[in-house]
Amino acid sequence: MTQVRPVWVARKSRWRWVRAWTLSALCAVLAGCASPAARVYALAAAAGFQALSLEGGGFRLAAFYKPATSPNPVLHVYLEGDGTPWESRWRIAQDPTPRHPLMLRLMALDPAPALYLGRPCYYGHAQDAGCAPALWTDRRYGPEVVEALAAAVRGFVRERGFRRLRLFGHSGGGALAVLLAPRLPGTLALVTLAANLDSAAWTAYHGYSPLAGSLNPADIAPVVAEYHYLGADDPVIPPQVFAPIAQKRSPGNRVIVPKMGHGCCWEAEWELILKRLDPGPAPGPHLPGSGPAPP
Fold first, then answer.
1. CATH at 244
2. 265, 29, 56: which is closest to 170 by C-alpha?
3. What is the pLDDT of residues 176-191, one digit of tens each?
């Protein structure tokens, strides 16, 4: 089983900055009992991201853009997890927006130009025309969701002049990255963190109802280089179930990170994960035993 040691010390200063940024933004909104969407917008504003509203598949999608802080012609697209589809086992959430946007924090650490793309009906759009709870429950990975995201990305890269991109997804966002890759020409690679790579296996393991209206990423053959990272201590995407699935999809590019859970603490690993994708002219610090970097 491929493993990598955490690199806590080397990432301390960056991680402290992210925590300070998160704390300052949260302090600004929590006193007013802001909605989850308002909190995400506050975090994005504190990081200096540009708020956008993109169109895709008849939906308005919230998005945030960060220009490059170093020369890089490749757009990085960040896809968040499923958020809060359910308030309890029996009650569907009225607003599925993520309460703890991990991918927004990771995007702040990325020097490449980057787009954080929200799903249909998330980030304050739950009451939009065409939105229904099914789009964040059993149809969360449905064809209309996937095509809406794909159309928004295609429009954005066409408008901004990008020719190449990479997809990054956490949890359910990783599932969407796999589903999106065949629909996005110019995709070089995709990276997933604690991703739901087989929705049927996931629902069976947890005893959930099947996602009957969704596409299953396990049914999609790999079309680009894939890098899958799993937390050794993740109860949501347990490695004993998903490590074989990830290994089958991308032999040699499946990494199990010791002492890592589902949402914490990927910031400590992010710089090394990015360098593995773009090592530069000299060999980069590859993750031990995880295979060669892409050309």
1. 3.40.50.1820
2. 265
3. 999 999 999 999 999 9
